[in-house]
Amino acid sequence: MTNDIYYYTSFNNFKNIININKGIIDLTANSLFYHTKTIKGYCCDQHIKDFIQVIEKHLSINETERISEFFSENNFEKFVKSIDFDFVDKLNQQTYFVLSFSKSHESVPLWHIKGDKGSGLILVFDKQEVEKINGLQFFDIIYTLDDKSSKLIEAYKKAQLFFRDEFINKLTPCTKEKYLSIKAKIFYQFFIFYFSTYDFKMYDFQEEFIGIFQQRGEFGAKGIPLKEIIPAVILSIPLAYLKEVILGPKISNERNLEILTTFFNNKSFNIPIRYSDLSYRG
Questions:
Q1: Whole-number Å distance between alpha carbons of 199 and 142
Q2: Number of other residues whose CB lies within 10 A of the CB of residue 87
Q3: Are the C-beta atoms of residues 12 and 261 closer than 8 Å to each other?
Q4: Between β-strands 121-126 and 208-216, what pairing exists: parallel, antiparallel or unpaired?
Q5: pTM above the 0.90 mark?
Q6: Where does 19-81 have alpha helices with state H?
Q7: Are 8 and 120 in contact (CB under 8 A)?
Q8: What pLDDT shows up at residue 249?
Q9: What is the rounded CA–CA span in Å between residue 38 and residue 276?
Q10: Per-residue pLDDT tens for 239-260?
Protein backbone atom coordinates (compact mmCIF):
# COMPACT_ATOMS: atom_id res chain seq x y z
CA MET A 1 0.00 0.00 0.00
CA THR A 2 1.44 3.36 -1.04
CA ASN A 3 2.22 6.09 1.47
CA ASP A 4 2.00 8.80 -1.18
CA ILE A 5 -0.21 11.81 -0.51
CA TYR A 6 -1.01 14.47 -3.09
CA TYR A 7 -1.21 18.25 -2.85
CA TYR A 8 -2.91 19.88 -5.85
CA THR A 9 -1.97 23.48 -6.58
CA SER A 10 -1.49 26.06 -9.33
CA PHE A 11 1.85 27.09 -10.84
CA ASN A 12 1.50 30.57 -9.39
CA ASN A 13 0.91 29.22 -5.89
CA PHE A 14 3.79 26.77 -6.29
CA LYS A 15 6.15 29.68 -6.95
CA ASN A 16 4.90 31.34 -3.73
CA ILE A 17 5.20 28.31 -1.45
CA ILE A 18 8.56 26.89 -2.50
CA ASN A 19 11.74 28.26 -0.94
CA ILE A 20 14.47 26.54 -2.90
CA ASN A 21 17.31 28.30 -1.04
CA LYS A 22 16.09 27.01 2.33
CA GLY A 23 15.07 23.67 0.87
CA ILE A 24 11.48 23.85 2.10
CA ILE A 25 7.91 24.08 0.89
CA ASP A 26 5.69 26.35 2.99
CA LEU A 27 2.10 25.14 3.15
CA THR A 28 -0.58 27.29 4.78
CA ALA A 29 -2.54 25.52 7.52
CA ASN A 30 -5.84 27.08 8.58
CA SER A 31 -7.49 27.00 11.99
CA LEU A 32 -9.42 23.74 12.26
CA PHE A 33 -12.50 25.44 13.72
CA TYR A 34 -12.63 28.03 10.95
CA HIS A 35 -11.90 25.39 8.31
CA THR A 36 -14.81 23.20 9.38
CA LYS A 37 -17.20 26.14 9.75
CA THR A 38 -16.29 27.46 6.31
CA ILE A 39 -16.16 24.17 4.39
CA LYS A 40 -18.66 22.04 6.27
CA GLY A 41 -20.57 24.51 8.41
CA TYR A 42 -24.06 23.72 7.20
CA CYS A 43 -23.46 20.01 7.58
CA CYS A 44 -22.35 20.36 11.21
CA ASP A 45 -24.87 22.99 12.24
CA GLN A 46 -27.91 21.24 10.83
CA HIS A 47 -27.10 17.96 12.55
CA ILE A 48 -26.73 19.70 15.89
CA LYS A 49 -30.01 21.60 15.54
CA ASP A 50 -31.84 18.46 14.42
CA PHE A 51 -30.66 16.06 17.08
CA ILE A 52 -29.13 17.63 20.18
CA GLN A 53 -32.33 17.95 22.21
CA VAL A 54 -33.26 14.33 21.55
CA ILE A 55 -29.73 13.21 22.36
CA GLU A 56 -29.62 15.01 25.71
CA LYS A 57 -32.84 13.23 26.65
CA HIS A 58 -31.49 9.93 25.34
CA LEU A 59 -28.32 10.32 27.44
CA SER A 60 -30.38 11.35 30.50
CA ILE A 61 -28.44 14.59 30.87
CA ASN A 62 -29.54 16.42 34.03
CA GLU A 63 -31.83 19.30 33.08
CA THR A 64 -29.55 21.75 34.89
CA GLU A 65 -26.69 20.68 32.60
CA ARG A 66 -28.52 20.68 29.26
CA ILE A 67 -27.35 23.04 26.52
CA SER A 68 -29.87 22.20 23.77
CA GLU A 69 -31.74 25.51 24.17
CA PHE A 70 -28.72 27.33 22.72
CA PHE A 71 -29.07 25.27 19.53
CA SER A 72 -32.78 25.76 18.96
CA GLU A 73 -33.90 27.37 15.69
CA ASN A 74 -34.80 30.57 17.55
CA ASN A 75 -31.52 30.91 19.44
CA PHE A 76 -28.96 29.26 17.19
CA GLU A 77 -27.98 32.13 14.89
CA LYS A 78 -27.56 34.58 17.77
CA PHE A 79 -25.64 31.97 19.78
CA VAL A 80 -23.16 31.25 16.97
CA LYS A 81 -22.57 34.95 16.34
CA SER A 82 -21.70 35.36 20.03
CA ILE A 83 -18.90 32.80 19.85
CA ASP A 84 -15.32 33.93 19.84
CA PHE A 85 -13.89 31.09 17.78
CA ASP A 86 -10.55 31.17 19.54
CA PHE A 87 -12.33 30.91 22.91
CA VAL A 88 -11.28 27.30 23.50
CA ASP A 89 -7.80 28.12 22.29
CA LYS A 90 -7.41 30.92 24.84
CA LEU A 91 -8.47 28.64 27.67
CA ASN A 92 -6.20 25.83 26.55
CA GLN A 93 -3.44 28.05 25.12
CA GLN A 94 -3.26 26.09 21.89
CA THR A 95 -4.83 26.12 18.47
CA TYR A 96 -5.50 23.23 16.11
CA PHE A 97 -4.54 23.71 12.47
CA VAL A 98 -5.41 21.63 9.43
CA LEU A 99 -3.90 20.81 6.04
CA SER A 100 -5.73 19.00 3.26
CA PHE A 101 -4.20 16.35 0.98
CA SER A 102 -5.63 13.70 -1.30
CA LYS A 103 -4.98 9.99 -1.75
CA SER A 104 -5.61 10.31 -5.49
CA HIS A 105 -3.55 11.86 -8.28
CA GLU A 106 -6.11 10.94 -10.93
CA SER A 107 -9.11 12.99 -9.86
CA VAL A 108 -10.50 15.13 -12.68
CA PRO A 109 -12.64 17.21 -10.26
CA LEU A 110 -9.61 17.93 -8.07
CA TRP A 111 -7.51 18.92 -11.06
CA HIS A 112 -10.33 21.29 -11.98
CA ILE A 113 -10.97 22.72 -8.49
CA LYS A 114 -7.48 22.84 -6.96
CA GLY A 115 -5.13 22.22 -9.87
CA ASP A 116 -5.90 25.33 -11.91
CA LYS A 117 -8.32 23.50 -14.22
CA GLY A 118 -5.68 20.96 -15.16
CA SER A 119 -2.94 23.53 -15.77
CA GLY A 120 -1.36 23.25 -12.32
CA LEU A 121 0.64 20.52 -10.67
CA ILE A 122 0.65 17.98 -7.86
CA LEU A 123 3.28 17.78 -5.14
CA VAL A 124 3.74 14.16 -4.07
CA PHE A 125 4.85 13.62 -0.47
CA ASP A 126 5.60 10.57 1.64
CA LYS A 127 2.92 10.51 4.33
CA GLN A 128 5.16 8.83 6.90
CA GLU A 129 7.82 11.52 6.47
CA VAL A 130 5.36 14.41 6.68
CA GLU A 131 3.88 12.93 9.88
CA LYS A 132 7.23 13.61 11.59
CA ILE A 133 6.65 17.37 11.34
CA ASN A 134 5.23 19.21 14.33
CA GLY A 135 3.25 16.26 15.68
CA LEU A 136 1.08 16.14 12.54
CA GLN A 137 -1.60 13.45 12.61
CA PHE A 138 -3.50 12.31 9.54
CA PHE A 139 -7.16 11.36 9.45
CA ASP A 140 -9.20 9.85 6.63
CA ILE A 141 -12.32 11.78 5.73
CA ILE A 142 -15.40 9.59 6.14
CA TYR A 143 -17.85 10.29 3.34
CA THR A 144 -21.10 9.34 5.00
CA LEU A 145 -23.46 11.15 7.30
CA ASP A 146 -26.38 8.76 6.95
CA ASP A 147 -26.51 7.86 10.63
CA LYS A 148 -26.40 11.42 11.91
CA SER A 149 -27.84 10.85 15.38
CA SER A 150 -25.37 8.13 16.40
CA LYS A 151 -22.43 10.28 15.27
CA LEU A 152 -23.67 13.19 17.35
CA ILE A 153 -24.21 10.91 20.37
CA GLU A 154 -20.60 9.80 20.05
CA ALA A 155 -19.43 13.39 19.67
CA TYR A 156 -21.50 14.51 22.70
CA LYS A 157 -20.00 11.80 24.91
CA LYS A 158 -16.49 12.78 23.86
CA ALA A 159 -17.29 16.45 24.43
CA GLN A 160 -18.39 15.61 27.98
CA LEU A 161 -15.03 14.01 28.73
CA PHE A 162 -13.18 16.83 26.96
CA PHE A 163 -15.07 19.46 28.97
CA ARG A 164 -14.56 17.64 32.26
CA ASP A 165 -10.85 16.91 31.77
CA GLU A 166 -9.67 20.08 30.02
CA PHE A 167 -11.87 23.00 31.05
CA ILE A 168 -14.08 22.57 34.08
CA ASN A 169 -11.26 23.48 36.49
CA LYS A 170 -10.19 26.48 34.39
CA LEU A 171 -13.52 28.29 34.61
CA THR A 172 -13.90 31.10 37.11
CA PRO A 173 -17.04 31.19 39.33
CA CYS A 174 -20.03 32.55 37.43
CA THR A 175 -23.81 32.38 37.18
CA LYS A 176 -25.52 29.20 36.02
CA GLU A 177 -26.61 30.96 32.83
CA LYS A 178 -23.06 31.99 31.98
CA TYR A 179 -21.73 28.55 32.89
CA LEU A 180 -24.15 26.86 30.47
CA SER A 181 -23.34 29.40 27.77
CA ILE A 182 -19.61 28.68 28.14
CA LYS A 183 -20.29 24.94 28.18
CA ALA A 184 -22.41 25.22 25.02
CA LYS A 185 -19.65 27.15 23.23
CA ILE A 186 -17.03 24.57 24.16
CA PHE A 187 -19.29 21.68 23.15
CA TYR A 188 -20.12 23.40 19.87
CA GLN A 189 -16.47 23.87 18.98
CA PHE A 190 -15.78 20.26 19.93
CA PHE A 191 -18.59 19.16 17.61
CA ILE A 192 -16.95 21.14 14.82
CA PHE A 193 -13.63 19.43 15.57
CA TYR A 194 -15.33 16.04 15.52
CA PHE A 195 -17.24 16.66 12.31
CA SER A 196 -14.09 17.85 10.54
CA THR A 197 -13.41 14.20 9.68
CA TYR A 198 -16.83 13.72 8.04
CA ASP A 199 -18.19 15.00 4.75
CA PHE A 200 -21.04 14.48 2.33
CA LYS A 201 -21.00 11.42 0.07
CA MET A 202 -21.03 13.72 -2.98
CA TYR A 203 -17.45 14.80 -2.18
CA ASP A 204 -15.91 11.33 -2.00
CA PHE A 205 -14.05 12.02 -5.27
CA GLN A 206 -11.56 14.03 -3.19
CA GLU A 207 -10.31 10.94 -1.30
CA GLU A 208 -9.17 13.45 1.28
CA PHE A 209 -6.64 13.16 4.07
CA ILE A 210 -6.53 15.96 6.62
CA GLY A 211 -3.44 16.55 8.67
CA ILE A 212 -4.05 18.13 12.08
CA PHE A 213 -1.46 19.60 14.44
CA GLN A 214 -1.34 21.93 17.45
CA GLN A 215 0.56 25.12 18.11
CA ARG A 216 0.49 27.19 21.25
CA GLY A 217 -0.16 30.91 21.46
CA GLU A 218 -2.58 33.30 19.75
CA PHE A 219 -2.64 33.51 15.98
CA GLY A 220 -3.81 36.09 13.53
CA ALA A 221 -2.51 37.57 10.32
CA LYS A 222 -0.61 40.86 10.27
CA GLY A 223 -2.36 42.08 13.40
CA ILE A 224 -5.87 41.61 12.00
CA PRO A 225 -8.31 40.45 14.70
CA LEU A 226 -9.08 36.74 14.59
CA LYS A 227 -12.78 37.30 13.92
CA GLU A 228 -12.01 39.09 10.67
CA ILE A 229 -9.70 36.57 9.04
CA ILE A 230 -9.08 32.84 9.21
CA PRO A 231 -6.14 32.26 11.59
CA ALA A 232 -3.36 30.45 9.78
CA VAL A 233 0.23 29.34 10.26
CA ILE A 234 2.90 28.04 7.92
CA LEU A 235 3.99 24.42 8.07
CA SER A 236 7.39 24.04 6.43
CA ILE A 237 7.97 20.68 4.74
CA PRO A 238 11.57 19.81 3.75
CA LEU A 239 12.07 19.39 0.02
CA ALA A 240 13.67 16.06 0.87
CA TYR A 241 10.15 14.80 1.61
CA LEU A 242 8.96 15.75 -1.89
CA LYS A 243 8.99 12.50 -3.88
CA GLU A 244 7.69 13.72 -7.22
CA VAL A 245 6.03 16.56 -9.12
CA ILE A 246 3.18 15.72 -11.51
CA LEU A 247 2.36 18.32 -14.15
CA GLY A 248 -1.29 18.88 -14.99
CA PRO A 249 -3.05 17.04 -17.84
CA LYS A 250 -3.64 20.30 -19.74
CA ILE A 251 0.06 21.17 -19.80
CA SER A 252 1.62 20.06 -23.06
CA ASN A 253 4.58 22.43 -23.36
CA GLU A 254 7.83 20.49 -22.82
CA ARG A 255 9.43 23.77 -21.80
CA ASN A 256 7.61 23.61 -18.43
CA LEU A 257 9.20 20.26 -17.68
CA GLU A 258 12.64 21.53 -18.68
CA ILE A 259 12.32 24.67 -16.52
CA LEU A 260 11.27 22.75 -13.42
CA THR A 261 13.92 20.07 -13.86
CA THR A 262 16.63 22.70 -14.23
CA PHE A 263 15.17 24.64 -11.29
CA PHE A 264 15.54 21.69 -8.92
CA ASN A 265 18.82 20.36 -10.31
CA ASN A 266 20.52 23.75 -9.96
CA LYS A 267 19.97 23.44 -6.21
CA SER A 268 21.00 19.76 -6.11
CA PHE A 269 17.46 18.48 -5.58
CA ASN A 270 16.96 15.48 -7.82
CA ILE A 271 13.16 15.38 -7.81
CA PRO A 272 11.37 13.36 -10.52
CA ILE A 273 8.97 15.40 -12.66
CA ARG A 274 6.47 13.90 -15.06
CA TYR A 275 3.26 14.70 -16.90
CA SER A 276 -0.07 13.37 -15.71
CA ASP A 277 -1.34 10.61 -17.97
CA LEU A 278 -4.96 11.48 -17.14
CA SER A 279 -7.29 12.48 -19.94
CA TYR A 280 -8.88 15.85 -19.20
CA ARG A 281 -11.51 17.85 -21.01
CA GLY A 282 -12.38 20.41 -18.33
A1: 6
A2: 15
A3: no
A4: unpaired
A5: no
A6: 32-58, 76-81
A7: yes
A8: 85
A9: 31
A10: 889 999 998 888 766 666 676 7
